[in-house]
Amino acid sequence: MADEDPSTAVVEKEEEAADPAAVADPASDEVAEATKAAEQVQAKMNLQALPIRAYLDQTVVPILLDGMSALVKERPPNPVEWLATYLIKNNPQGSSAAAN
Fold this sequence. Notes:
Helices cover 75% and strands 0% of the residues. The longest helix has 24 residues, at 26-49. It has helices spanning 6-18, 26-49, 52-59, 61-74, 79-89, 95-99. With 100 residues, the protein is mostly helical. The chain has 6 helices and no strands. Helix 4 crosses helix 5.
C-alpha cells in the first residue's frame, strides 16, 4: 500500500462515498427489520379490530373466490378436498400461517 498512487486512492474513496450501499450501516438493516416487524404487528392488530365482513373481505374472500373459480373449471369428483388443497397451495400468507 505504501507504493500506491495517491490519485488512485482518492478515486477509490470518492467511489465509496458515491455508493451509499458500499458504506451501509449494519444498524440500518436491523432498523428496517424492526420496522417491518412492527408494521406486521400493527396490521395484525388492525385486522383484529375489523368487523366480521371486512375481515373476511380482506383475508379470505379473495383467495376463496380464486379457488372457487378454478374449482368450477376443474370440476373434480371431490370438490371440497380439491378446494382445501388449492387454498393450502395458494395461501398468500405462506405455509407458516397454515400451522397457526
